[in-house]
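Everyone, describe these structure tokens:
***
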Amino acid sequence: IESLGRIHHIKLEDIPNIDLYMDQVTTFMESRLKNTTRNPGEDKILTKTMINNYAKNDLLPPPVKKKYSKEHLILLIFIYYYKGILSINDIQILLKPLTEKYFQTNGDLNLGSIYEEVFSLEKTEVEDLKEDIIKKFTTSRDTFKNAPEEDREILQLFSFISMLSYDVYVKRLLIEKMVDSFKSATANDSNNAQSDGNSRK
């Protein structure tokens, strides 16, 4: 439970307002997200190859004169969190409509405000997750009570890991279904906008 304390998102105000070269982008992401990795001393958060692949797969708009803006960094942070559970194709479905509509826009609703709104839910979400994890742990301690004492602890740990894994499995299935709904909804919006434009013509 204490290890969940290392989960902190990068605050919007901490994302540089100046455009950065690729090396500066990877250094920034590394310094801010290293603690979220399994092996902080070894695991890479972001590499040049990853950034180039994201651009090739239309997850990220191309840099301007080899420089990346604050909006690029916001998208890279979203990609970092999504890539552990979603395919590149699903991430593209989620981010493309946002990029097309809100990337480098000056209105009240832009990528920065969307980022802030989404991550404002973090604190409550972590607290709810802690309660759920404690509940699952308590339940797992009631399993295998008739097992030999020398095997009981490892079997209960296996139960606990299985419960957490099933939770992730079900949520992933739900997320994939929601991504499909998101795809349909954004496609309908796009078609409606196109129809409106054709009507005006």
User: Anything to note?
Assistant: The radius of gyration is 21 Å. The first helix runs from residue 22 to 33. The mean pLDDT is 89.
